[in-house]
Design a protein that fits this description.
With 496 residues, the chain is an alpha+beta fold. The protein folds into 3 domains: 232 residues, BirA Bifunctional Protein, domain 2, CATH 3.30.930.10; 112 residues, Rossmann fold; 73 residues, 2-Layer Sandwich (Translation Initiation Factor IF3). It contains 14 helices and 27 strands. It has an 11-stranded mixed β-sheet with strand order 3-9-10-16-13-12-11-24-27-23-22, sandwiched between helices. A 5-stranded mixed β-sheet has the order 18-17-19-20-21, sandwiched between helices. β25 and β26 form a beta hairpin. It is globular, with a radius of gyration of 26 Å. The model has no long low-confidence stretch (mean pLDDT 96).
Length: 496
């Protein structure tokens, strides 16, 4: 095994430590000099770029366009929507001055007290306020609607207990902000974007997700409804993978964004916002990876196929190079990302372990004997199975294998979720089952008091009221804690 793999903690021993080590050893990210912030390394950023490219395509297919809004938000803007400011107040980084000067004692630079801002600026924790102050200038009539904007950006939420990708003070994301003439149109938009996220998670990330609506307690600050996709990680904890919010007219009223409707009446605009972040990288790692390293879905792998030659002399290498050049070109023509690693500064065994650690879906090996027999050794990363395959038609074989791997890792994750989703009827049973991890479907009386009690006593939260629930789960019952009437079962889990 390669040096990188030595000491990788097993998931069964310490899942959290396994995750932290894997992110660093697989060259995805590392801690930065700024506490709570991360450096996303080239290999990690390449995965994010593939996510970004696919999501951006899906957004544009649904009629959205990209824009960019300022990083800094006047403090007074955050005060305009009461729930919103309350939700983010404890996480805001504040800019108070605009200039530095040399310290009189020569010790370096210091903040110039004469350069204090008249109004402090907030580094955006999210952009609803600055965007709605802008939309006021864009919207006068129903003819100006809808506005379907998205921005790719960074945001800052002052987190001190951080974990790479899952929770960092600064993170990358996209945030969609749309404006509509009617409530129905805005609600349809928010639900549509949730479907886009679910399709991306399942078809590209190979992460099965539960779609649903959040309880009032778990809603986004300032939203009337928050829709969510929830994934189940291999340690039995839930991860919120994306959210879409129906904001009603709250932000339009806060920033006085009105329009003249078709009946020549003045009304406030209806709004949505929706976003996914680099937290999806955490979901990708924790859903699929194993004790040998990353397992990447082919749809998002920066390198889908790696080819490694094994040779004893330059003559053998020259023959293998000649043979491999053609299939590399063919793979590229088919849209398959391939790397031929014939560098002589690392031994084949090191390369094998390194690409395994980095989750490359398919590894092809060609040695002297393969050259004679017109074969290649094929290893698939998801199962670690090896097979010797004829060189002829290898391109089609690998193309089909990549599709098979994509489907297989999705099915494996789905099976895990189904095996770890249980129904309980009593609070005692709930307390026992939540210790085992997984999703639990239980009756809830709909009150914040009961929800808070469960959270305090068990550390479990309501992840959502699932859309795709079976008939029994949608049948009224009684709350497991209070015995009061319950409209339906909801999904509980401990979560990141």
């Amino acid at each position: 095994m390669a040096v990188e793999l030595k000491g990788l903690t097993k998931r069964s021993e310490n899942y959290s430590q396994w995750y932290n080590e894997l992110v660093v050893k697989a060259d995805l990210a590392e801690q930065s000099a700024v506490r709570g912030c991360m450096v996303i390394k080239p290999y990690g950023y390449a995965i994010w770029e593939k996510m970004q490219a696919q999501l951006d395509k899906m957004f544009k297919e649904t009629g959205h366009v990209n824009a960019y809004f300022p990083l800094l938000i006047p403090k007074s803007y955050l005060s305009r929507e009461a729930e919103h400011v309350e939700g983010f107040a404890k996480e805001c980084a504040v800019v108070t001055h605009y200039r530095l000067k040399n310290a009189p004692d020569g010790s370096g630079v210091t903040v110039d007290p004469a350069a204090r801002l008249e109004e402090e600026l907030i580094i955006r924790p999210t952009s609803e306020t600055i965007i709605w102050s802008t939309y006021k200038n864009w919207i006068n009539s129903y003819r100006d609607l809808p506005i379907l904007c998205n921005q790719w950006a960074n945001v800052m939420r002052w987190e001190m207990r951080t974990r790479l990708f899952l929770r960092t003070a600064e993170f990358l994301w996209q945030e969609g902000h749309t404006a509509h003439a009617t409530r129905e149109e805005a609600e349809a938009e928010a639900r549509q974007m949730l479907r886009v996220y679910a399709e991306f998670a399942e078809n590209y990330m190979a992460v099965p997700v539960v779609k649903g609506v959040k309880s009032a307690n778990e809603r986004f600050a300032g939203a009337l409804d928050t829709y969510t996709i929830e994934g189940l990680m291999q340690d039995g904890k839930a991860l919120q993978c994306g959210t879409s919010h129906f904001l009603g007219q709250n932000f339009a009223k806060a920033f006085n964004v009105q329009f003249v409707d078709k009946n020549n009446k003045l009304d406030y605009v209806w709004a949505t916002s929706w976003g996914v972040s680099t937290r999806l990288m955490g979901a990708l790692i924790m859903t699929h990876s194993d004790d040998n390293g990353l397992v990447l879905p082919p749809a998002l792998a920066p390198i889908q196929v790696v080819i490694v030659p094994i040779y004893k002399n330059d003559e053998q290498l020259a023959k293998i190079n000649e043979k491999v050049d053609g299939i590399v070109a063919n793979f590229k023509a088919m849209g398959i990302s391939v790397k031929y690693d014939n560098a002589d500064n690392k031994r084949p065994g090191f390369k094998f372990a390194d690409y395994e650690l980095k989750g490359v879906p398919v590894r092809l090996v060609m040695g002297a004997r393969d050259l004679e027999n017109n074969t290649l050794e094929v290893m698939r990363r998801d199962t670690l199975e090896k097979q010797t395959v004829s060189f002829d038609g290898i391109e089609e074989y690998v193309k089909n294998l990549l599709d098979e791997i994509q489907a297989n890792i999705y099915q494996k994750a789905l099976n895990y979720r189904l095996e770890n989703t249980r129904k309980v009827d009593t609070y005692e049973e709930f307390k026992e089952e939540i210790e085992k991890g997984g999703f639990i479907l239980a009756h809830w009386d709909g009150t914040t008091e009961t929800e808070e009690r469960i959270k305090e006593e068990t550390k479990a939260t309501i992840r959502c009221l699932p859309y795709d629930a079976d008939e029994e789960s949608l049948t009224p019952g009684v709350d497991m804690v209070t015995g009061k009437p319950s409209a339906r079962r909801v999904l509980f889990a401990r979560a990141y």
